[in-house]
Amino acid sequence: MSTDAITVIVVAVLAAGLTFAIVRLLDRLTRRDAETEARRIVEEANRNAENRKKEAELEIKEVAIQQRAAGEKEHGQIRQELHERERLLDKRQ
After folding, report:
1. Whole-structure pTM over 0.70, yes or no?
2. If you ran DSSP here, which 8-state letter would residue 59 be given?
C-alpha cells in the first residue's frame, strides 16, 4: 500500500470520527435548547395560571364587597321603612 492510500484512509477515518462528534454535539445542543424552551414555556404557563388565579380571587372579593354593600343598603332601607311604620303607628295611637 502506498503512503497516499494510507493518508487517504487516515483522513477518511478522522473525517468520519469528526463528523460523528459534530453531529452528536449538535444533537446535544439542539436537545438542550428544546429543554430550555420547554422549561420557559412551562414557567410562563405557571405564571399565567397564577396571575389568572389572583385575578379570579380579586374578582370574587370585589363581587363579595358589592353584594355586602347591596345587602347593607337594602337592610338600611328596610330599617328606614320599619322606623317610618313605627312612627305612623305611634302617631295613630
Report:
1. no
2. H
